[in-house]
Amino acid sequence: MMMSRQQWWPVATAISLAIVAGGAHADERESLEALRQTTLGLIEALVDKGVLTREVADGMLKQSQQKAAQVAAAAPQAKPETTAGGKPVQRIPYVSEAMRTQLRNEVKEEVLAQARTERWGVPNALPSWTDRIKIEGDIRLRYQSDKPGKSNTSPDDYLVSEGANDGFTRAADFGAYSPTYFYSTASTQEERTRERLRLRLGVSAKVADEVGVGVRLATGSSTDRVSTNQTMGQGFNKYQLFVDRAFVRLDPAEWITIQGGRIPNPWFSTEMAWSENLNFEGLATTVRFAEPQDSFVPFATAGWFPLREESPPRNGGRSLVGAQVGASWDLESRTKLKFGLAYYHYKNMEGRSDLNYGSQGTTQVPYVNYGAYEYGSSLRQKGNTLFETNPSEIGDSIPLWGLAYQFKPLVLTASAEFTHFSPFNIMLTAEYAHNTGVSEDDFHKRATDSLYAGKDPKGRADGYNLKVAVGAAEVREVDQWQLMASYRHVGSDAVLDAFTDSDLGLGGTNVQGFTLGFAYGVYRNTNLNVRYLSAKNIDTTLNSSYPDALYKVNSLQVDLNVRF
């Protein structure tokens, strides 16, 4: 690798100093001569290693000689002093040993620093653009045991409820059926044990100071956006990798960040509002109203995310828009606070009575946009209040379930970190959600079938999540540890169940329960994590015809996490 003129100036400086050494005297001349020879030896070594060509080295020597001559010529020519006998007086400038040592060290450090930066003579040196690439990822091995309560409502009851057109449910997939086969397709009382694996591999690149890109691949399912787990025991079949993230990030100024594509969660939140495994598709912008060194930093985030394109036959696209304002505040070096207030609005997610079918003789047939108001099984988890959008269609058709309420939740999130108790920290997190879209009047305007006349879906609009953790803020090193406990009480319709946590109660809303966890650093970037989760439903998992419908489950998760 050859050096440019700017790159070899430290070497040229050393050569100049070495040549000037010729004008010194006695001991000083010996010391500077040693410096001269050392510098010339360095030049020869660089030529031998192929870092410099002979032509460049000779040019450097010639240029340094010319520079030394210019310095000597520019010096004032004083009249030579003579003794009384007419002999010339020789004056020897004094250069201390400390100054000579400092001079040698400065030249040496400058040359070595430049060599390290430019990778002079490094075999197979990577090009400089690789410094802008970052690769990271993690692998998690998990043992998971889920034990539903033996007194849980049988899935046959969910099936009978749907078949009888009772109209409402909060766990439609516990009793899904088809016109051909009338049987339950889920289990609510049997234990399940799984070994699971999660792989995530991400690459990010800084294209310019203002532009970055990111891509991440992950295991999981194409229809499960809130989990990247791959269940083992598939007959040694290979795993699929999916594009988990793919985004462009713009930082045109220190105070603004713009992200577009499939991006990381842009909101300050907990797993009650958004699963930690969820990524968003769309556009988000965050503005910070402070200087980087300020202790109090207000921020605002806005985002738009399409959920379904607007095209025939299902007219009416679906989307999520959101806005959040908040601030982070470092009260002192040992106390950090953060809070945010967010408003989210889902467009066209709520269900409506579906009349998009007609009669051909004695048979009813759907129109092309039939099912446009469904909250499909590929999206929902469980917990939200659903109503059947097609109850008046002929008897053996598959029920289509739509959301009973609109979703316009207000979410307040706050966290605090205290490091007064070294060597461990105390971390507190709280979140409260209220869905302003829960309205019985609005429901009856959309659910026009006579089955729903005078019926109240009885959904809950509120939810909260509390968490305390003690120990390391993040377990990354050997012998670091963290002990945590959390309690969650999230009403059926406080948030959309599709995007919330999938672990407590095996996912969804209409759930209350606690989580206990302990993580320990076994090696660097390797930790063992054990969690116990216990949950049960708040309101009936069915409807008013089954007011005591019950679903509770206890889960044990043992994880080995390795980051790289």
DSSP summary, beta strand count: 22
Question: What structural class is derived from the secondary structure elements?
Answer: alpha+beta
- Total number of distinct structural domains: 2
CATH topology heading of the largest domain: Porin
Largest sheet: 16 strands, antiparallel, barrel
Strand content: 35-45%
Order of helix and strand elements from N to C terminus: HHHHEHEEEEEEEEEEEEEEEEHEEEEE
**In percent, how helical is the residue content?**
10-25%
Principal-axis shape equals elongated
Note the topology.
Layout: H1 9-20, H2 26-48, H3 54-74, H4 97-118, E1 133-148, H5 155-163, E2 168-169, E3 192-208, E4 211-218, E5 230-231, E6 242-253, E7 256-263, E8 280-288, E9 296-308, E10 318-332, E11 335-347, E12 357-360, E13 363-366, E14 386-388, E15 401-403, E16 409-418, E17 425-435, H6 440-446, E18 462-471, E19 481-490, E20 511-523, E21 526-537, E22 552-563
Helix pairs in contact: 1-2, 1-3, 1-4
Give an account of the 3D structure.
There is one protein chain. With 564 residues, the chain is of the alpha+beta class. It has two domains: 9-77 and 95-125, no CATH class; 132-563, Porin, CATH 2.40.160. The protein is 17% helix and 37% strand. It contains six helices and 22 strands. The strands form three sheets. It has a 16-stranded antiparallel beta barrel with strand order 1-3-4-6-7-8-9-10-11-16-17-18-19-20-21-22. A three-stranded antiparallel beta sheet has the order 2-14-15, covered by helices on one side. Strand 8 and strand 9 form a beta hairpin. The two termini are 31 Å apart. 29% of the residues are buried.
